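Reviewers of the previous submission asked for a worked example of the structure-prediction workflow described in the proposal, so we include one complete record here. The input consisted solely of the amino acid sequence. No template or homolog information was supplied to the procedure at any stage.
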Amino acid sequence: MVKKIALAVAIMSLSAAPAWALPGKGHAEGSHKGSTRSMEVREDHGKGKAGTDHGKSGEKHGKAMGEHGKSHKCKPHAVAYTAAGVLVSDTLTEGEHQTVSGEVTVEVKRGNHFAKADKGTTKTYMLEDSRLRGPLKVSALAKGDFVKLIGRITVLAPKCKTSEFTPTLKIRQIVFHAPSAS
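From that input alone, the workflow returned the following structure tokens.
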């Protein structure tokens, strides 16, 4: 019987209004619904136990509003860059662990969104310790082989000022294939 009464009291206490729903102390007078008086701030509003000022209304704790929320939108960030085409010439040297360094000139046939400016042009790419993939090795390359370049390029958001910005391109992987038989 005592357990049932304790359980009933516990359930009733849980079903009471939560603490956040009860009216608080120290808020502006006249803030209750239906009040027509103007909002008057109490003198002790914003003061702690020792009477220290915790900031003016509208300020974050510790810092002024001007120091919060600075946008990172116009900072350079790296995005994927892929381009593919036909090999024109190369000065590549093989390194350790299937890497290559040097220059490769490619007649770009296709690419992703960030390589669209290079499509239809002949572009020279600088490679530094880029991974070599595909069936062909540097010693077996010939003019007209298929080349795919995969890397990252730095960009800014479309509405940012680009007058002092220069994109940097880092090719991390290169794939060579013999031209198709068709």
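The domain at 77-177 is CATH 2.40.50 (OB fold (Dihydrolipoamide Acetyltransferase, E2P)). We consider this example representative of the routine output the project will generate in years two and three.
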